[in-house]
Inverse folding.
């Protein structure tokens, strides 16, 4: 006798399908770029029909933002872990610089993709708002990390933690663009720049 699937099993299958589409979406977006990517290509990469994609994501932008939101949450967790493991602010700074270097050296495709979507979303208020919300997860995680380590270390930050987090991110994002043309120069500048922002140039 064939029994109907329970709601929990259907939910598990739906969650598994969504995760497979997110994985396929990451592959297609990084490989093809945002503008050239299509939901048809994502469906083919995942081995599903296009209907399965639309059953989970209304538009290509919706899929990309879901990927970015997932990535932002994961990076926020990594930042919190770095704060927990850091002995002081200088140790936290070194860990953040090492993470930036990893992204520049090993995730160039993702960085180019994010710049492409960032420009696209800047012209679309709804997309911009959702992108900003996901982006703020990372900024807030850096802010919390700075506050946590400074308090534990008994060190006074050179500026409010939220402003310092914004400056660190802006420096990293700007130098990431420079790294597309001259990665060695950008690497040196990010190390020096974070020292200056943290008031630890010596």
């Amino acid at each position: 006798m064939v029994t109907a699937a329970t709601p929990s099993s259907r939910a598990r299958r739906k969650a598994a399908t969504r995760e497979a589409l997110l994985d396929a979406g990451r592959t297609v977006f990084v490989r093809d770029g945002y503008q050239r990517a299509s939901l048809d290509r994502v469906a083919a990469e995942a081995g599903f029909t296009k209907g399965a994609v639309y059953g989970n994501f209304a538009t290509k932008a919706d899929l990309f933002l879901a990927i970015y939101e997932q990535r932002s949450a994961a990076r926020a967790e990594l930042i919190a872990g770095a704060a927990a493991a850091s002995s002081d602010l200088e140790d936290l700074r070194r860990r953040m610089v090492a993470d930036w270097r990893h992204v520049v050296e090993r995730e160039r495709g993702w960085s180019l993709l994010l710049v492409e979507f960032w420009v696209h979303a800047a012209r679309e208020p709804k997309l911009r708002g959702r992108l900003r919300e996901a982006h703020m997860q990372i900024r807030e995680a850096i802010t919390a990390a700075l506050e946590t380590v400074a308090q534990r270390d008994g060190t006074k930050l050179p500026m409010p933690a939220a402003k310092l987090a914004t400056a660190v991110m802006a420096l990293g994002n700007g130098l990431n663009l420079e790294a597309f043309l001259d990665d060695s120069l950008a690497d040196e500048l990010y190390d020096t720049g974070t020292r200056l922002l943290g008031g630890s140039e010596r």
